[in-house]
Amino acid sequence: MKEEYVCNFSCPTDLKYIQDTLYVISGKWKVLIIVSLSSGHKRYREIAKSIPNITFRMLSKELKELEMNKLVTRTVHNETPVLIEYEITEYCKTLWPMLSEMISWAKHHRTVI
Amino acid sequence: MKEEYVCNFSCPTDLKYIQDTLYVISGKWKVLIIVSLSSGHKRYREIAKSIPNITFRMLSKELKELEMNKLVTRTVHNETPVLIEYEITEYCKTLWPMLSEMISWAKHHRTVI
DNA sequence: GATAGCGCTATACCTTAGTATACTGCACAC
DNA sequence: GTGTGCAGTATACTAAGGTATAGCGCTATC
């Protein structure tokens, strides 16, 4: 384990940052939606179908929050009928280092528990 | 951004790992408790006092979960009166790379939002 | 003109997470 | 023997997160 991770745990700002991050990605559906979008699904119904058991209510609620956090864009194409496309942003990819750490931690954790 | 973070988002196992990790550290109090223990608080009442508004119920519930995940140890010293000490484990420190990424992501995110 | 698909919203409900308050049993101090 | 601190537990409640179901307005297809 590298020493760069040694950090001042008593720093209340750091704590706040951790809580902020948790707030952005926690909830039952957020990561699932990001995954669905990452694998190319763009349209509302398409995303809904790709995520078993999600309801329309939850999907639109979570998409809105992801959009507010600039992790997802919503584009309205003025064709007829109107076509709406959701896409993950480039910015969303800045989550990767963190998600990657989560994956490797949990992988290791499985061997410990 | 380094390429080592490029990852197969459609991999369902990775998704499961992320959810596992979130499960371990999410909730209103877990990180606060880890912080309190990290800054040297060891005894139940002491921890409780250091975290504003936490109730005994939540504290004991969360400590149990943290103990189950081997992030915290509970030691009973058989003096009279009995003395109980909680401590974070060395293993808990393996969370640091991830928490560190969370902190830096949220720091950056503040500038974006 | 009935049915189906699109992109949702509305309402009501249920379940989980967290809160509030009281209480237990033990040891010590006054 | 009353009060204090320790380490909690028990019970009841509220709030937040999530579910279930129905429906809207639009367009296209049969």
UniProtKB/TrEMBL annotation, chains A, B:
PROSITE patterns: HTH_HXLR. Keywords: DNA-binding, Transcription, Transcription regulation. PANTHER family: TRANSCRIPTIONAL REGULATOR, TRANSCRIPTIONAL REGULATOR, MARR FAMILY. It comes from the Bacteria. Residues 11-113 form the HTH hxlR-type domain. Signal peptide: none annotated. This is Helix-turn-helix transcriptional regulator. It holds the Pfam family HxlR. It comes from Larkinella humicola. GO terms for molecular function: DNA binding. Gene3D superfamilies: Winged helix-like DNA-binding domain superfamily/Winged helix DNA-binding domain.
